[in-house]
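The records we work with from here on pair a chain with its fold. These numbers are not coordinates but entries in a learned vocabulary of local backbone shapes. To see the layout at work, look at the sequence and tokens printed below.

. . .
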Amino acid sequence: MKECIILKFIFLISIYLYSSVAFANDVCGNYGRESEASQTYINPDNNSFEVISTKRLHFFSSPNKTCKIKDLFLVPGDIITGHTEYNGYVSASYAKNESWSVTGWLDKSQLKHIDIKSNHPIKNHCELVSDLAATQAFSGGLKTPSNAFATAVKTKVMLYNAPDRNCPKESTFIIKGDNVYALKKYAGFILAQYVTTSGKDVFGWIPQSELKEFNPTTTLHNSTQINIIDFIVIKNKKWIGIGSFYSNKLSGIDEDETGSSYIGDFPNGAGGLYKYTMHNYKDISLVSSNANYDKRQYTIDDDYIISAINIETPAYSTLRGIKVGDPADKVFQAYTANQAQITPEKISYTLGDMYLDFTLKANKVASINMGIPIPGEE
């Protein structure tokens, strides 16, 4: 009888502990979701803090006292980078060295602002912030923008080596109307890829407030030079392009997939694999892949992109208005001939590692193909 009572007591204690943990997880999850919706961003020009607590300062998984991480803490004098504020807490990152960093919420009352420029070497600071962002990217800690294309909205938009205004790339900027690939979001910045007119890739961080989402239905194509938005096709105000996120393909395609097939995977210089899948629709065919994921600070199986598009019907057109069935002369009216490689069967344009081909039959456009070549097809 006594043993039975003891067993019941142990059972009840176990239930209580399990319920307490489950309740705490629910609370922390709720606060995490609330903070995502209501947090305020800290000015990136003044986002460095020093720990001033008299003892260990613990990280929290969410901005609530019940969400303490017992084995993760800082000590007085540690320097952190603050990103957002909510409920008396600061979402912060701390980098001890190039191979170790951590993020979480800290009690704001135990922190004080410091002037990083006068107290710490700016070069080291920028390297730490950049390394931390890269670590977060490769661990899945950075968010992917909803739109892969963005446009500069200021006369001069600087690119930065890290998501911090103290870390500009020397003499590197884009101008109002320039288009970039928006790769990741972090601390009020966008990791962007700008492709120059000569096809060179330039990567850098741009303040989110200095970019707007590109929309071909409201933005005129006014450049004579080939640029990244020339690798977009449109149908009835729905559009999709090379570099568009495959997970967001339904925003650009209004028809059901008729079939798909795995093309294969190919080793890359990062020690991983580029993987390719063909997707067929009535009016368009796509290839989704993780091509160049390592250059975009993606993990090997992060959000896949559209890396090739094939059109063989006039349902879709390019942003310059060319569609299947148009005469070859119309292609030259829309795209300058001096940038093209021309044969009797094909008119081709390139930008970096991307191609845009108009195949011809009887001097009319028979198909439109664009994308990033699969390894071995260059």
User: Anything to note?
Assistant: Residues 4-23 have pLDDT under 50 and may be disordered.
